[in-house]
Amino acid sequence: MDNTLEIHAVYKQLLDAWNRRSGRGIADLIIETGESIGFDGSQSIDISAS
Question: How many domains does the chain fold into?
């Protein structure tokens, strides 16, 4: 199943939250077992462990 449209929608929500400087908006898009890789290669993996 192709979920490209869903991925694009979440990415747009992430950019919108970033532009609003909304930490809560960004956090709401990340699931507990999610991973984030920054533009500089930094990683945030499994935020439920923190």
Answer: 1
